[in-house]
Amino acid sequence: MEITIDQLAQRVSMSSRNIREWQRQGLLPPPTRRGRVGIYSDEHVARIRRVQQLHAEGFRHLAAEVLTPFSTAGPTTVSRAELDNRLGTGAAAHLAKLGMIADTDDDPVSVRDAETLDLIEGLTGVGLSLERLVATLVDIRGHQRNIADVILRAYAEDVWEPFVSSSFAKPDWASLADNAGRARQLGIALLAHLQQTALDDAAASVVLSEVGQAERALDGIKPTHERP
Q1: 12/24 Cα distance (integer angstroms)
Q2: Any alpha helices (H) in 13-113, and if so which ranges?
Q3: Using one digit for the tens of pLDDT, what is the confidence trace for 8-40?
Q4: Separation CA 162–CA 79 (nearest Å)
């Protein structure tokens, strides 16, 4: 069989552009040249279909490792009255700013993450206002996404791109999926540890500052002497 790149693209359900990209990456041998026309054969069709199969099997394995969420809390449904009782009046509107509630007019309300809701309730229970807490979390979320993007880009450049350059051969798909899953767990553990360390350092600084202010305030209070 001898076909052009457009005919090959139609046969394997790919674009001509992607076929050329696979050639550039070394996934597909170059065609036989007849003048300025590239001629493809059964070998090219078989090679493409094999790579497509490996991609499908590999991506399924990789997705199972990387895309499965660690949190198993899932969404929860609560009445507006219960939500206001737990977090204060107007809680639904505040949670909507975090993207935790899609429709604030519903009753009962569907909350995306029950675990996050419980933790927010705990923090408001120790004295933080819901309004301030939500504003802080909205700000933090942007920083967290930036950090995640930087880490994932580093992993892509150091691990994924060499894997692509090896024509998806070193390591194999299963090993890469295991590696990605482990990297994800270690990355989350490292960030959690660093955040805990940062909170400890910040707490120590805040406590020392507040104690210093309290001592200065006490020094300014003159003792009263009882009359004999």
Answers
A1: 18
A2: 16-25, 42-66, 80-87, 91-97
A3: 999 999 899 889 888 877 778 889 988 888 999
A4: 51
